[in-house]
Design goal:
This protein is an alpha+beta fold. 16% of the residues lie in helices and 34% in strands. The chain has two helices and eleven strands, in the order H-E-E-E-E-H-E-E-E-E-E-E-E. A hairpin with a 4-residue loop joins strand 8 and strand 9. The two termini are 16 Å apart.
Length: 179
């Protein structure tokens, strides 16, 4: 059995290895960026058309780390994107939080500390199932309904994979790296 003092560094090293592997497999050469409209597959499996040249910088909605949420005793898989804020959030795992409703759209909880949001610029409107960080308050938001609009202060960290119905009534959540 691994002593408790070594579990967190081991998880951080595992997360770092995953992030390095993803970065190593990503082709960011200019030749990989088309200059004409292209069809891009979203994480929901839908097709959308891009009218601008593809960026060589990874989108904050690209998934990079599998995580497990346990909501009121029920497990739910999710994925974090490859943003600085999501990586900093993962460094807090395992994390147990008490949730409360906010605007009948999201469940929120205070994080133990503020997250690093440097270099994060995705201002997409939150969707049902998104995990997000609201920088002015330093809290985590689990959206169970689509958000009204994008906000420069709201950073999407990842997305729940599957049914988000439990999020609407969730009172407690434990978040950890997936095994």
């Amino acid at each position: 059995m691994i002593p408790a003092a070594l579990r967190i560094p081991a998880r951080v090293l595992s997360a770092a290895a995953v992030l390095l592997a993803v970065a190593a497999c990503t082709d960011t050469s200019p030749a990989a960026s088309p200059s004409s409209p292209s069809s891009v597959s979203s994480s929901a499996g839908q097709q959308r058309t891009s009218t601008a040249p593809a960026s060589t910088a990874p989108s904050d909605r690209n998934t990079a780390m599998n995580i497990r949420l346990t909501i009121d005793g029920h497990p739910l898989d999710a994925t974090l994107n490859d943003s600085a804020a999501a990586r900093d959030f993962a460094s807090l795992f395992p994390l147990t939080l008490d949730l409360e409703d906010f605007h009948q759209t999201e469940r929120i909880a205070d994080l133990p500390r503020r997250l690093d949001t440097s270099g994060v610029s995705d201002t997409s409107a939150p969707r049902a199932g998104d995990l997000a960080y609201y920088a002015p308050w330093g809290n985590l938001a689990l959206f169970y309904r689509d958000g009204a609009s994008a906000s420069a202060d709201l950073f999407i960290l990842g997305h729940v994979d599957g049914d988000t119905d439990r999020l609407a009534t969730a009172e407690h959540v434990t978040i950890e790296a997936a095994a």
